[in-house]
Specification:
The complex is a heterodimer. By secondary structure, chain A is α/β, with parallel strands linked by helices. Chain A has three domains: 4-90, no CATH class; 99-247, no CATH class; 254-378, Rossmann fold, CATH 3.40.50. Helix content of chain A is 44%, strand content 7%. In chain A, strands 5-4-6-7 form a four-stranded parallel β-sheet, with helices on both faces. In chain A, helix 9 packs across helix 17 and helix 13 (244-254) packs across helix 14. By secondary structure, chain B is an alpha/beta fold. Chain B has one domain: Rossmann fold. Chain B has six helices and four strands; from the N terminus they run βαβαβαβααα. In chain B, helix 1 links the parallel strand 1 and strand 2. In chain B, helix 1 (14-24) packs across helix 4 (110-127). Chain B is globular, with a radius of gyration of 15 Å. Chain B starts with 5 loop residues before the first strand and ends with a helix. The chains are: A alpha/beta, B alpha/beta.
């Protein structure tokens, strides 16, 4: 069904010069001596045709794209890893799921076409929807995250509500779907392409039924998957995909959306999928700068060099991932900021999870979602 | 009509003693009920419950010791949390929170166990087959039957 050799070719791994810059910048390789992107490439390319032995280290990659940023030939290492994971899964390798595999089970169930979800119970009355417009706000898995991670003291739905309030305030019309599915990014990253295609197709049918032509989302993972991965695997769907910050930034700049004041020193974390994958570095910063009294401090690693939140597709999470999170939080703390602002619900979950682990070494500072901070300035 | 497929996660102590008492007392419950023994209900997390539904179960029942009777003294803390989370997720999925039941049983009370499990199965038969798979007409994946090995070869 998928041609792994072709994908390896397309990922330009054969251009690898063996220089090892990927391994030097890789946050996982710094804490896990067994994980070495350069050697993974070397081992897979040097493998004989009839040898089907699997490389057990491929599962540690965070798909953070830091190696792609540093590579002279821009070898698409995450795409290469995705192909290897699909190959390993097809050969019977079982992924070590975190959270007991609950999220994977949910995603698989969401691929069922006849599913009738009841997922809009949280919607506040004051949010006005335009059911006849062709723009959809893609909520993503926030309602599910809230149920699963209720003990972490965060609410992904609050961020979604804040995003909807901002869109209402900016008079951008949108509608919501009551039977929207997961975007499938985590399944794709895990090499579960059948699962990914299942949820993607179920979503596409929903979109076609509701005549969706434009999508706005506040989750960078959904944004990248809908914009890049879906067309790649399913062909062009003729739907424009926008991130909330792409919508907000011009409105704020033109002055049609006025933000209020907050008196905090904050630092902004670039989520991998929004920054390195999608190139949206300035839009969130410009929007944050438009908030009066907000002082924006940059971390040691920011923009293209920004550190990953340390965990990826709800699997293979362990001590190494904690170290990466510790490093990111230490960098945030070192800026002197009281608040770490991130634009990704998953980054927020992973970082809060690290803070709640009870490790005294992990710096404690408040973490909030971008949209929540912006709405706070309005109140 | 075929009974609803139910997976019962039971703890090794009071929960299992009820299942054994039911067997010894020759009390009946449908053959579509599959018992999975775990050391303590605190072993059962969200992932296991959802996995049962993913594999096509119509309902999941958790049976364990009465409050204060846990062999390890910790069960209520964990299982109550996971139970509430799983119910919230089932509600969101549109499957209905009533597909998950939690029963705390007195040691060796086979009659109570069979009554609760029979009641649960009959409640599910009003809902069954699950909304998610109804239109497909068949289950996503059939749970392996304990008798499968006899028919092979």
């Amino acid at each position: 069904m998928f041609d792994v050799d072709r994908e390896i070719q397309d990922a330009r791994v054969r251009l690898c010069l063996d220089c090892g810059k990927c391994t030097v910048v890789c946050p996982v390789a710094q804490y896990d001596p067994d994980f070495n992107p350069r050697l993974i490439a070397q081992r897979r390319l040097g493998r004989r045709k009839n040898n089907s032995s699997q490389d057990a280290t491929i599962w540690s990659c965070l798909s953070c794209h830091l190696c792609v940023e540093r590579c002279n030939y821009r070898v698409a290492f995450p795409e290469f890893i995705s192909a290897l994971r699909w190959e390993a899964r097809s050969a019977g390798y079982e992924v070590k799921c975190s959270h007991g595999g609950a999220l994977q089970a949910l995603m698989h169930m969401m691929a069922r076409k006849e599913l009738r979800q009841d997922r809009l119970g949280w919607l506040p009355q004051e949010i006005s929807l335009s059911s006849d417009c062709d723009t959809l706000f893609f909520v993503g898995c926030a309602p599910y995250f809230d149920a699963i991670f209720s003990n972490l003291g965060l609410s992904s739905l609050e961020s979604v509500k804040a995003a909807l309030k901002l869109l209402n305030r900016a008079q951008v019309p949108f509608k919501l779907l009551d039977n929207e599915r997961c975007c499938g990014r985590d399944l794709l990253l895990q090499g579960d392409r059948d699962g990914f295609l299942g949820v993607a197709r179920a979503n596409m049918e929903e979109f076609a039924r509701h005549n969706v032509r434009k999508i706005i989302t506040s989750c960078p993972e959904c944004y990248y998957t809908l914009k890049v991965d879906w067309p790649k695997f399913l062909g062009d769907m003729g739907i424009q995909v926008w991130h909330l910050m792409e919508v907000m930034a011009p409105l704020v700049q033109k002055g049609s959306l006025k933000l209020g004041k907050l008196g905090n020193r904050i630092t902004y974390h670039d989520p991998c999928t929004l920054g390195r994958c999608s190139g949206l570095y300035d839009e969130p910063r410009n929007v944050l700068r438009a908030v009066g009294g907000l002082e924006l401090a940059e971390m040691e690693q920011s923009r293209e060099k920004s550190l990953c939140c340390g965990a990826s597709p709800w699997s293979h999470c362990g001590a190494v991932n904690r170290r990466v999170q510790e490093r990111l939080l230490a960098q945030a703390k070192a800026t002197g900021a009281e608040l770490l602002v991130t634009a990704c619900p998953k980054c927020q979950i992973h970082l809060k999870c690290a803070q709640k682990a009870g490790d005294a070494k992990i710096p404690q500072l408040d973490i909030k979602d971008m949209a929540t901070v912006l709405v706070q300035s309005l109140d | 009509m075929e009974s609803a497929d139910v997976v019962v996660f039971t703890c090794n102590w009071d929960g299992l003693s009820c299942v054994e008492a039911a067997a010894q007392g020759r009390l009946c419950y449908p053959t579509s009920v599959r018992i999975v023994r775990v050391s303590c209900l605190s072993r059962v997390h969200l992932g296991l419950v959802l996995r049962a539904f993913e594999l096509g179960a119509d309902g999941v029942m958790l049976t364990g010791c009465e409050p204060g009777e846990c062999h390890y003294d910790i069960d209520p803390k964990y299982i109550d949390q996971e139970y509430e989370k799983a119910r919230a997720l089932l509600r969101l999925m549109g499957l209905g929170a009533e597909r998950l039941a939690l029963a705390r049983l007195r040691r060796g009370d086979g009659a109570e166990f069979t009554e609760q499990v029979n009641r649960f199965v009959s409640q599910l038969s009003h809902l069954w087959p699950p909304a998610a798979v109804a239109a497909v007409g068949e289950k996503q994946a059939k749970l392996p039957s304990p008798w499968d090995f006899r028919t092979e070869g």
